[in-house]
User: What shape does this take?
Amino acid sequence: MRRSHRGLTQHPLATADSGTAREFLVHESDGRLRLSGDWVMAHASELAAALDGIPRGRSQRLVLDATGLQSIDLGGALLLDRRLRALAEGGARVEWQGERPPQLEVVAETRKGAKPEPQAVEEGFDLAEPVRTIGRWAVERGEEALTTLSFFGAVCVVIARALTHPRHLRIAALTRHVQETGLQAIPIVSLIAFLISVIVAYMGAQQLRKFGAEIFVVDLVTVGVLREMAVLLTAIIVAGRSGSAFAAEIGVMKLNEEVDALKAMGVDPVEVLVLPRVLGLVIALPLLTVLADAVGLAGGGLLCFWLLDIPFAQYLSRMQEAIAPTTFWVGIVKTPVFAFLIAFVGTLRGMQVRGSSRELGRLTTVAVVQAIFLVILADALFAMLFLELDL
Amino acid sequence: MRGLVNRFGTQVVHDGLDMDVYEGEIFGVVGGSGSGKSVLLRSILGLQRPVRGTVKLEGRDITALDAAELRKVKQRYGVTFQHGALFTSLTVLQNVQLPMTEYLRLSEADLDELARFRLAQVGLPADAGAKYPAQLSGGMIKRAALARALALDPRLLFLDEPTAGLDPIAAAAFDALLTELQKGLGLTVVMTTHDLDTIFRTCNRVGVIVDRHMVSDTLAGIVGQEHPWIRRYFHGPRARAASASRG
Assistant: This one.
């Protein structure tokens, strides 16, 4: 298209109107249609309305006069062209008195060059479609299970290799992850543990008051905190915090081709990226949970003192009657399992990121949701197990 | 490389592609968008498993090696990626040192000295070493990536679109650097590129991916090829300008 665009200057959008009513299309007394004003995108809706007002009649003769036109851009020209074509198809003849705006040429040229859109095939409702969807879903779930299993295998191999050849243990990365997942989580974990035990103690006190059995709040809090609440809540917080962090960190590295660079150098990304995170969390989570236990017990004691006037000494002695060493261990033994699940899901989803930032967002969310779900599921299974073992 | 076949679903990207690269030359891989230049490179590097085909490096079939042997082979070549793929959580110096710490036992001082030497080799100022990739300009990122690729003194380099996104001055400088290094170190370079200036300035031989196969020839020969796409590529207005400016 060798057309010069000098004739296509557009009027600035914020224009002082030329006083008179914004008549874009005037039906003159001699039958002419006079175009006036600024036929620009900013006035698109008014232009369309004006064009709709052109009377239709078979084999009519339309005379258009564009000499009074202030300005016209390609959007305005397109609307005009569309309407004129429709009228021409209806049998009307279009003539121009005076010069025809060159923008119409540009529109016509562009239309010629545009490839037609492939007709979307109308699919009728197919009884087989729901079945196909189920089938596709099943196949995808199967593939996903296979991917998860193979990743699990890779992680186990790397763990075994690191344990037998400590050279493969990236200590620097490991300590960094213990710091990030453990140390830096101390404030939030302590706060939550404190609050949750206060809440439970309060609720318990309300109920036990009716029986004059307030002292048993101590049992409720201490056993509850040590066996379940501190453990589960700490794991859930860490799942949200570190599960998303792992998925996002590794996901960004995938998008940036850093993981490919590692592979191209002969470095195993699972060894360098996944292992330090998994081991780091397995070390950090039990320690965090011990802290949460302590803070939770303290919180319960504080509430019993404030609300129930139970002196701390009495709280301690009641606690010693209520709990046994197993109460503590039953809680702690779950933590390495939770840690492994969280780190595994987080790193797996991170490794699956490819293509776009939307994938990154989606998989990070999936990582957190699945980590939390798996933690709670594992907790339920442990509960059943301990029930069987009478612990 | 012989008989490479790469397929994604129903889309066949390479259908029995053959490629030969000789020692000491700069070999340019050229092809239209979507012709599979990067896929080709990834097939060589082991990042993409081809449906069929063999790839031999220095006579050994790398598709048949086990993990430990493959690791040894990977030390013998360096790779740069289109966007640098520098490790964003490490400084430039640490990036360059990563291959060294992975495969060699060196003292801190030696590592630092070697890494700084690599930076100097690619023309990066000494203070670039302490910067993080996010703080570098595009040209510096490419050079840092090259420094990392050269860390273990490889004889073979794979470069994926090395001058993509660089302004003409930086691209020309990179071309000059590459030719200089090739002469000085006797490197063999395989690079994928769109950049006609780079092709005319640096490449000894060129392989064009057309119709899912490769047509290779010397630079002079490829320009004379009959295939319509190749003719358009090397005789279009930009190509003529590039070849003219080569002088």
Residues 233 and 239 of chain B are 7 Å apart (CA to CA). The longest strand of chain B covers residues 2-8. Chain B has a mean pLDDT of 86. Chain B touches chain A at residues 42, 45-47, 70-75, 79, 81-83, 85-88, 98-99, 102-103 (CB under 8 Å).
